[in-house]
Write a sequence for this structure.
């Protein structure tokens, strides 16, 4: 059996946390590949090392003195090394290289990636494992997307030759020969790629919570932990704001049927959440999870006999595409079509889009509504449960929350409702109480 273990920033923020991580790794001989993040916050008000590195890059790019910032970052890593009692080991050469890059050729992705890189070197030294530099095994194409074929081929070979090994998360090599990072939280993606390439049996993702929660704990007090969630369910929840796992981390393991186990570094005996392709485990509730985002707006296009006009929808979407705006949802009726977009992307281009829609489709009217929040209610149990939508709408009606949009896919896996931004938190509480507390 092979297990890949990925540890988040909070799990590796200090020497004390490092020791917990190593104890976890050594507790199971099948944990043979480790993917570390950069050191996170040690306490409330502390800074994440990645944020510190980006700040140093920005200072260097402006031609200002960044030496004090770099010294603080070096102190963070030295504190970890000293706290672990590692002898005859330092990162002086690495910091000299970072300093030279910031001085001569500041690169944001390179600088931002050093947190993971340096943490990986420390973890490999402490464990006595091999160290694999992601820029040698993870590759991006000219468009900045992952080169999946080359990455899997090179990564598989490196893992076979180096076991056990530490592979830092978050970055790889761009087509231009420079370090390129994934989006924030991308260490999850690295872990998923390592799991796929090593043909792992399990991908364990260790963080500071005991699994995926049914709702955001900043909104709902002490929400339940989800025991089993499918890839499709988590993809929907991640896309709508659930932050336990990077949304793109699902794809590599899904292709290989590898389950993900979300675990808590500070409570390693907790079962956590299992993310699987499919399961006969019955969900605890009709709804698996609730997630959402604020800051959307809707564009309602009305035209009589719209349904009979071939190509109408394509022309409407062309107006958004020509202005570089992607859409989120597109609920429609016989004579109406609504396009939901991010308000911050749309705001400065709204009149150009409206003009384009008029020019391309000659609509009867166009109405724009702002301050829209979207909430996704997701659950595989919805397919076999009757009255789910009615229960959802009743819960919101009881709290006098107006529903401004409804979108339900044919898969019956989720229902998305739009409410005003000001009602967002109260709506999530109402939905949670109706589907989880009431069960």
């Amino acid at each position: 059996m092979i297990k890949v273990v990925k540890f988040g920033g909070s799990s590796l923020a200090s020497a004390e946390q490092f020791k917990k991580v190593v104890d976890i790794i050594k507790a199971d001989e099948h944990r043979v590949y480790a993917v570390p993040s950069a050191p996170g916050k040690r306490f409330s008000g502390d800074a994440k090392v990645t944020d510190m590195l980006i700040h140093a890059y920005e200072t260097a790019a402006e031609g200002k003195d960044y030496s004090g910032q770099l010294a603080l970052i070096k102190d963070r890593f030295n504190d970890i090394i000293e706290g672990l009692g590692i002898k005859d080991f330092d990162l002086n050469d690495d910091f000299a290289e970072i300093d030279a890059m910031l001085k001569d050729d500041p690169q944001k992705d390179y600088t931002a990636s050093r947190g993971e890189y340096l943490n990986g070197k420390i973890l490999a030294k402490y464990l006595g494992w091999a160290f694999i530099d992601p820029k040698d095994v993870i590759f991006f194409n000219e468009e900045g997307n992952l080169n999946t074929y080359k990455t899997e081929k090179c990564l598989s070979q490196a893992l076979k030759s180096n076991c056990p090994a530490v592979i830092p998360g978050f970055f790889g090599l761009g087509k231009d020969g420079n370090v390129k990072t994934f989006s924030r939280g991308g260490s999850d993606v690295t872990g998923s790629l390592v799991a796929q390439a090593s043909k792992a049996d399990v991908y364990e993702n260790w963080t500071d919570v005991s699994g995926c929660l049914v709702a955001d704990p900043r909104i709902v007090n002490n929400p339940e932990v989800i025991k089993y969630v499918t890839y499709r369910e988590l993809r929907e929840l991640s896309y709508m704001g659930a932050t336990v796992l990077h949304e793109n981390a699902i794809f590599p393991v899904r292709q290989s049927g590898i389950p993900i186990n979300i675990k808590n570094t500070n409570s390693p005996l907790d079962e956590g959440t299992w993310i699987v392709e499919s399961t006969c485990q019955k969900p605890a509730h009709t709804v698996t999870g609730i997630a959402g985002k604020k800051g959307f707006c809707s564009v309602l296009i009305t035209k009589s006999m719209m349904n009979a006009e071939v190509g109408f929808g394509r022309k409407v979407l062309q107006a958004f595409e020509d202005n570089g705006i992607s859409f989120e949802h597109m609920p429609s009726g016989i004579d109406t079509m609504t396009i939901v977009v991010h308000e911050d992307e749309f705001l400065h281009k709204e009149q150009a889009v409206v003009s384009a829609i008029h020019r391309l489709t000659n609509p009867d009217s166009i109405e724009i509504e702002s301050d829209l929040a979207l909430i996704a209610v997701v659950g595989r149990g919805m397919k076999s449960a009757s009255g789910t939508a009615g229960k959802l709408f009743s819960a919101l009606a009881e709290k006098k929350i107006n529903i401004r949009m409804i979108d339900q896919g044919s898969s019956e896996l989720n229902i998305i409702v739009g409410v005003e931004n000001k009602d967002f938190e109260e709506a999530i509480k109402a939905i949670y109480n109706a589907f989880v507390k009431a069960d």
About this structure: Residues 108-127 form the longest helix (20 residues). The first strand starts at residue 3 and ends at 7. The chain has a mean pLDDT of 93. The chain has 14 helices and 15 strands.
